[in-house]
Design brief:
Largest sheet: 3 strands, antiparallel
Order of helices and strands: HEHEHE
CATH class: Alpha Beta
Strand content: 15-25%
Distance between the termini: 41 Å
Strand order of the largest sheet: 2-1-3
Number of strands: 3
Number of domains: 1
Length: 91
């Protein structure tokens, strides 16, 4: 697993005892718009690659697949999806 591709929150989840089958919601940033073999590799790893030209994807994957995904050359960065809460303070 290429640890340099993981954000701190995702790294903490993967090294903190999460089970291989536990689902993690992640953002996947690719180095370029995936085509051909890169798109197939992402899809095989569980990342839904649609026909739209983009470099950021979302996926819910078992931790074991996230670890494998980090080793794909097309993957630039993986980050853990976080629940956002509205701010209660005034600007």
């Amino acid at each position: 697993m290429d640890l340099t591709k993981l954000d701190p929150g995702l790294l903490a989840e993967l090294t903190g005892g999460v089970g291989n089958e536990d689902l993690l919601r992640i953002f996947v940033r690719t180095r370029s718009i995936p085509t051909g073999g890169d798109a197939e590799a992402l899809a095989a790893a569980g990342v839904p690659v649609t026909g739209r030209a983009r470099t950021v994807f979302t996926a819910s994957l078992p931790a074991a697949r996230v670890r494998a995904l980090a080793d794909l050359p097309v993957v630039q960065h993986l980050s853990l999806s976080r629940r956002l809460h509205p701010s209660t303070s005034s600007p």
